[in-house]
Specification:
Strand content: 5-15%
Largest sheet: 6 strands, mixed
Strand order of the largest sheet: 2-3-1-4-5-6
Helix content: 55-70%
Radius of gyration: 32 Å
Oligomer: single chain
Structural class: alpha+beta
Distance between the termini: 47 Å
Order of helices and strands: HHHHHHHHHHEHHEEHEHEE
Length: 385
């Protein structure tokens, strides 16, 4: 099974899951607190109860604000600072609930004591979905909520109280184990999801982006460039005489050749937003956002030379080694046009490079209000030996 290892993707989803139930969790906590206050009203000092209720509201609000702060983040790592904040807020919320046995000491007997234990266990169980993305935070929460109650019961004079303390301890342990198990399930699901996502957008031979990823990237960058009125460059790259390479050396060696060329092209990329993809067969495509024509031409020549420097033996080529032909096109996109237009112009330039002797770069610049007027038709960039 292919498993994604990109921590940015997984951590972003982990962080999103951590805060997904923040609003519901805060409402649930406040609802439980109001029920508790109503049940114990008149049994405990009213000022203490209201002070405790205010503390619950403050702790819930702090967690909600932290969730909203990170809700819009994209491709964010779950940093040490963020994990520490979640642990601190879990401890704060846990202490607010865990202080109840101390607040009520000596605890009322009978139905009130049972209700207190019931509310604490319900609070712990209902908080489980909030913390499965970070089970250590849930463990902190459990300890803060249940440890004081377990201590009070274990120090009780009656055997039933000590038995209840043991049952609470076992209950806490069960919840902690469940949280850990649910966390592993969540992480496995995320890894499989992004693994399938990557499989759907990665060419299995070259490990470059595939045609689907290229189309998605080109569409996105076309729209962005059209909005900002910035240039967009596309290059089409073809391995020269690749059919004869397969005929001479076999398809297995052909795949190795594709891999070597793919690595050379990928290593030539200088910016994180640039994309090189396998277009199909022995063809590759490159998308260069916000890159003007002159700079893009230098980029293309650098990629051509990078492949030539590999010196991959090719008896079917006049050079004696593997070379590539490159066709490029640059334009400022018109939103009324489709990105396929730019890809077609780059492909036409590639055809001209192959027709004129291969192992060279040809270019087409596209200007005009509708992005259709061609300037520099078939301009020769390279001077191959």
């Amino acid at each position: 099974m292919f498993v994604a290892t990109d921590p940015h993707h997984v951590s972003t989803q982990q962080l999103a899951h951590l805060h997904r139930f923040a609003g519901i969790g805060c409402l649930s906590s406040l609802a439980n607190a109001l029920i508790f206050v109503a049940f114990f009203w008149g049994q405990v000092d009213d000022v203490q109860l209201l002070t405790w209720l205010a503390a619950v509201m403050v702790a819930a609000s702090a967690r909600l604000m932290n969730a909203r702060e990170h809700r819009r983040s994209e491709r964010v790592m779950l940093s040490t600072q963020q994990s520490g904040t979640v642990l601190l807020l879990a401890a704060l919320n846990g202490v607010v609930w865990g202080v109840l046995p101390v607040l009520l000491y000596p605890a009322p007997e009978g139905i009130y004591q049972v209700f207190l234990i019931f509310m604490l266990t319900i609070t712990c169980a209902s908080a489980l979905p909030w913390y499965i993305a970070l089970p250590n935070a849930y463990l902190v929460y459990l300890v803060c909520v249940l440890a004081p109650m377990i201590l009070v019961l274990s120090l009780g004079a009656q055997a039933v109280e000590q038995l209840m303390a043991l049952m609470l301890f076992i209950f806490a342990g069960t919840l902690a184990i469940t949280a850990r198990s649910m966390h592993h399930g969540l992480m496995d699901a995320l890894q499989k999801y992004f693994g399938y996502q990557k499989m759907a957008t990665v060419d299995m031979v070259t490990q470059l982006a595939n045609r689907r990823a290229l189309d998605e990237c080109l569409t996105t960058e076309w729209k962005r460039a059209a909005r900002s009125r910035l240039p967009l460059t596309v290059m089409m790259i073809d391995i020269d005489h690749f059919k004869s390479f397969n005929d001479i050396y076999g398809h297995q060696e052909g795949d190795l050749c594709l891999n070597e060329v793919a690595r050379a092209l990928a290593a030539s990329l200088r910016r994180s937003g640039d994309l090189v993809a396998r277009y199909g067969g022995e063809e590759f495509a490159v998308v260069l956002p916000q890159m003007a024509c002159n700079e893009a031409k230098e980029y293309a020549e650098h990629m051509r030379r990078a492949v030539s420097k590999l010196k991959l033996q090719h008896a079917g080529s006049s050079h004696g080694y593997v070379t590539v032909s490159i066709g490029g096109a640059t334009c400022i996109p018109d939103p009324r046009q489709a990105p396929a237009m730019l890809l077609k112009q780059a492909d036409d330039a590639l055809y001209q490079a192959k027709r004129d002797g291969r192992d060279q770069v040809r270019w087409k610049s596209i200007v005009g209000t509708q992005g259709l007027e061609q300037v520099g038709e078939g301009e020769n960039i390279s001077n191959p030996a």
